[in-house]
Amino acid sequence: MSRFLSSEFKGLEPYVPGEQPKTSGLIKLNTNENPYGPSPKVLEAIHQEQVSKLMLYPDPECGELIEAISEYYGIERDQVMVGNGSDEILAFCFMAFQNEKRKIWFPEPSYGFYKVYGDVFHAERNLVPLTEDLRVDPKKYKNLDGTIIIANPNAPTGIALNLQEIEDILKSNESNLVIIDEAYIDFGAKSCVPFLQKYDNLLVVQTFSKSRSLAGSRVGFAMGSREVIADLNAIKFSFNPYNLNRLSILAAAAAMRDDDYFQKTRQSIIRTRERFSQELKAIGFHVLPSSANFVFAESDRLSGQEYFTGLREKNILVRHFEKDPVSNFVRITIGRDEDMDLLLTATKELLERTAK
Ligand code: PMP
Fold first, then answer.
1. What band does 208 get if pLDDT is binned at 50, 70 and 90?
2. pLDDT (0 to 100) of residue 14
3. What percent of the chain has pLDDT over 70?
4. pLDDT tens figures, 298-341
5. For residue 44, how many other CB atoms are within 10 A of its CB?
6. CA distance 84 to 242
7. Ligand 1 pocket test: which of 30, 180, 209 has the largest number of ligand atoms within 8 Å of its C-beta?
8. Tens digit of pLDDT for each residue in 154-207?
9. What are the C-alpha distances in Å from 97 to residues 14, 144, 224?
């Protein structure tokens, strides 16, 4: 820490992203990336002519991408805004709607960035524990006194709320903004975007990083009422008007328009997840019911730390969170079938080792 750091950031605990290994030859199942490459339409969109225009600033309105998203979801263009990953959208939400006087409620454990943004932007954080079986308890979000943010499906558990549960939260919090972070929505849960017609206190945040295979492009988006989107744009234009680069705008618009590829790849991931979950259960693991592109699993024969380390020694990277109540679990991204088979073989070897 330098002596110049603002005093308010002296105790800041930054978010720790999953490891991005520099060496090749690892099976990388630790950051919920999509094992399938971007749509071929993305590769067509980023051709040489576009690269040769990189001396020009991008469109600060990101018009082409906003149009692709609004057409896909059947909402108005002024109900959509885009960001440099949904992380940036979430940061804009904290900047726009939170301060030390307004509470923000969210589940714990959930996406680790909510806590960090709470600290950076001086929000009064209220962490709501999960139930004993690691579910978000919708009853605990009724008639609250501040903003609510819920990842649906939740991370790192993968368990989703249903639409009725979300609607009840929206109804009982008319004077609060309810942010539903749908980063993993395309892998099995139902999006609450249709509720935008009825509830102006809803903001839905999604990303191109998971189901649309563009984590490296850094594109996320928010959908909400015109007024809430205008607030977020006011923040964006006061902070970083060119928040998406030229190539990312083109890549994301092309990905949004290629529904065939999107459907094919997300269905493959869902199929692999279901098979893999069954096989892990068959060897004695407790696997939470996932609606995401990862599973959260534990064994009573290996601690979370032992399983994580054992797989790492076999060149397979998964994610382990040290804090309770989830320290015995590991989070495993769903890769290609062959990756999951290698992980299952490695797991069986580790279990055999413990039996000796
Ligand atoms: N929300 C949740 C629940 C996530 O797990 C992630 C990814 N780690 C994000 C948001 C952010 O994703 P991105 O910035 O890549 O859009």
1. very high
2. 93
3. 100
4. 999 999 999 999 999 999 999 999 999 999 999 999 999 999 99
5. 11
6. 10
7. 209
8. 999 999 999 999 999 999 999 999 999 999 999 999 999 999 999 999 999 999
9. 21, 15, 14
First to last CA, the chain: 48
Q: Please indicate, yes or no, whether the overall pTM of this predicted structure exceeds 0.85.
A: yes
* Residue linked to tokens 């368990």: 159
CB of 221 sitting under 6 A from ligand 1: no
Distance 3 CA to ligand 1 centre (A): 32
For 184-195, write each residue's pLDDT tens digit.
999 999 999 999
Decide whether any atom of ligand 1 lies within 6 Å of the 333 Cβ. no
CATH class of the domain defined by 25-37+260-355: alpha beta
Nearest CA to ligand 1 atom 7: 183
Q: Where in the chain is the domain with CATH 3.40.640.10?
A: 40-258
Measured from the CA of 215, which atom of ligand 1 is nearest?
Answer: 15
Residues of the chain with CATH 3.90.1150.10: 25-37+260-355
Report the residue count for the chain. 356
- CATH code for the domain defined by 40-258: 3.40.640.10
Could you tell me if the CB of 155 is within 6 A of ligand 1?
A: yes
> What atom in ligand 1 is closest to the CA of residue 90?
10
